[in-house]
Amino acid sequence: MSVMDLLEFEKQEMMPESYKERTTEELEQRVREIKQKFGRRLFIPGHHYQKDEVIQFADVTGDSLQLAQVAAANDDAEYIVFCGVHFMAETADMLTGEHQKVILPDMRAGCSMADMATITQTEKAWGKLTEVFGDTILPLTYVNSTAEIKAFVGKYGGATVTSSNAKKMVQWAFTQKERIFFLPDQHLGRNTAYDLGIPLEKMAVWDPIKETLEYNGENLNDIQVILWKGYCSVHEKFTVQNIEHIRKTEPEMKIIVHPECTREVVALSDDAGSTKYIIETIEKAEKGTKWAIGTEMNLVNRLIQQHPDKHIVSLNPYMCPCLTMNRIDLPHLVWALESIESGKPINQINVSSEVTELALLALNRMLERA
Question: For the segment 14-70, what is each residue's pLDDT rounded down to a tens digit?
């Protein structure tokens, strides 16, 4: 969240304790009642990483951009209760109409990766990098970023990317400029560029805390990719040691990971791809096959339940679910829905028109090439 978001968060009322005192049966019944009452006026998108107690009530499940696009296409929905994290709700607000209200059940549901790149840090970095490299850089940002970062990228001619289309967008970026500046996840940027044939020696990392460029080479002009020093706190916890353990104990098991994992982990895995790609790969896999999956635990557990004919484990058995994504729980969902029912919606996400205009430039440049 930006500073303004944090200030706005301070104004938000906290969920009354009474919601925690209700039984699961009471809470589930209230969700069903309110969904039936509002019908098509209410739409609940749920991200793949949400808890089962929440995802059971989702009208659609998917990744962040997909959910925002589906919400935007659902013109009948007056209220969109987004079960995900803050940047996802921002994207939904920017893509939906003025008559639609996007609500986040818990404003504490942020994203540590998105928060690693603030607009102040990014503008400082851009100033210093353009002093060195001139007008040779095009910014790209993972959709897992704040609306302000998307707007920054849109302002300077860049685009957003997803883990599904990152290769296509990086290829496009290199038709525009000599170098790319990839925010905020260094691992997705590094893995994508490497798969496209760019050697690691031609990649540098911008440290927003030290405000320095980390590069081991001798000639700065050799740099083609500048990576922001950010990461997903979940995916970075999958390690080479996890892979070595699987290879030793389950040599027949295939390992598939998300490209937000480190280069070393991706290189040693059998396959890597977006959340959607991982789900589809498991769905298509033959019965009896064995899989170790390197992604968020709620999704891995759901895949285990959905595919009892396959042997599936988490690549890291001690992995915790995404803590910020798990802020959205059944009590917060009911609180959000009852606030709508009472005519006093809480936690509405509002992205300014100025930020929206620029951010949509970045999003649309991607969507035009999807």
Answer: 999 999 999 999 999 999 999 999 999 999 999 988 999 999 999 999 887 788 788
Indicate whether 123 and 150 sit together in one domain.
yes
What is the CATH number for 341?
3.40.50.10800
pLDDT tens digits along 124-162? 999 999 999 999 999 999 999 999 999 999 999 999 999
Do residues 43 and 102 lie in contact, with contact meaning Cβ atoms separated by under 8 Å?
no
Q: Specify the number of domains making up the chain.
A: 3
Contacts 24+ apart (CB under 8 A), 310-314: 310/282, 310/285, 311/253, 312/282, 313/253
Total-model pTM: 0.91
The reply to whether 370 falls in a domain is no
Q: Which tokens sit at 222?
A: 């050799």
Whole-number Cα distances in Å, 282 to 21, 207, 296: 38, 37, 15
